[in-house]
Each structure stands twice: as structure tokens, then as C-alpha cells.
Amino acid sequence: MLSSNPMQIFQLIGQLKNNPNPMMLMQQIMGNNPIFRQVMQMSKGKNPVELKQTAINLCKTQGIDFNQVQETVRGMGLNL
Hints:
Order of helices and strands: HHHHH
Low-confidence stretches: none
Structural class: mainly alpha
């Protein structure tokens, strides 16, 4: 299960960036988490533009500012 410890989160991001198969790593980390399974199901067969729109829609339904998420992720060296 994923911890809220900031150092562990940064280590995970480093592992994802340097892993040849980041999805396999995420599946190993998240295990049988039902939210992760739902996200994986929603993302199947989508291109990058469709995935971004899905992320925007998810943020809206949760009351989260997508631009803030995007800036935070960009600050970690990832791109949405």
C-alpha cells in the first residue's frame, strides 16, 4: 500500500521514471486496490489526449483543480 510519507512518494516517482515498465511497477505497488483497478479499466485503449481528458474529468468530479495537479506533477519531472 502507498504511504503518505513524502520521501517514499519521491522514491516511487524516481522508480517510475527509471523503470522500463512503469505500469507493471504500479500494479505491483497498488495490488488489489479497487480505485487503482477502476482507473486502469478507465484508461484501457485510450490515447494520451483521451487519458488527459479522463484525468481532467476525474479532477472535476472530486473538486480538484487539474492545473494544480499538473503543476505539481510537472515539478516532480513528470508530464500529464
